[in-house]
Known about the structure:
- This protein is an alpha+beta fold and 252 residues long.
- It contains seven helices and ten strands.
- The protein has helices at residues 29-38, 45-50, 119-125, 130-146, 153-156, 191-210, 239-249, and strands at residues 7-9, 17-19, 66-68, 72-73, 80-86, 100-106, 111-112, 115-117, 164-170, 215-222.
- Strand 1 (7-9) and strand 2 (17-19) form a beta hairpin.
- The longest helix has 20 residues, at 191-210.
- It is flat.
- The protein starts with 6 loop residues before the first strand and ends with a helix.
Amino acid sequence: MEPHVPVSRCPTSRGSFTPRKTAAKKPTKQAQEQAKRILDGTRAADIALFGRMIADNTDFNVNAASQVAHALSTHAVVNEFDYYTALDDLRPDAEPAADMIGTVDFNAACFYRYANLDLEQLATNLPDDPDLVARSARAWLYSFIHAVPGGKQNSMSARTMPQTLLGVVRETGAWNLANAFLSPVTDVPDLMAASTQRLVDHFQQLRSFYGDTQLRHTTIASIGSDPAGMPENEIAPTLDDFVSRLLTATKG
């Protein structure tokens, strides 16, 4: 097959050829209506939460209602190495094959994770359906709590659950508490408890300095002993109570 493409002579010293640019055709009104119907995201919770960008037509862009930060360790981490070999034990001797050896880097750390959800933006993205907004917010919260990275699970089985949950319902703004761990947690008998206390102390420092007039509700839940410095009425005994308090506060 010989494809034939219209070209124009390019006046360069090497006599190269450049394909002729064709003007982009403006889509018909019918095509625009079909695209609008196909790409309608007003009923899609995932698009409402995490947004969408279409460079060729910004009319279909959706601003994300959720922001998710990278997880970071609360202490210094040193990578370890998992040595492995890969070979076919049943391969006949006469057949060629490629066996291999290698290492996989891994570490075990106590991580701080942070995310926020703009409920006003979520309601904008899912208009005229408060029930879908509420169900999306609930699913987002539970999903964030239970989120576990999927990579290398068959080799590592990293199915650890969070030790402490701190949730805040705000009128405006957001506080990422990563600065609590600018100085790594070290030389402590209980790394989880010390990291939790460091988190709470930093949160209370921000609360004291910036004020809490914008904080509609605060709740903390921990598997271990209750962290010092949090009022008793802000401590939830279970995960379900923690989630219930936060979601109820969003309706206030």
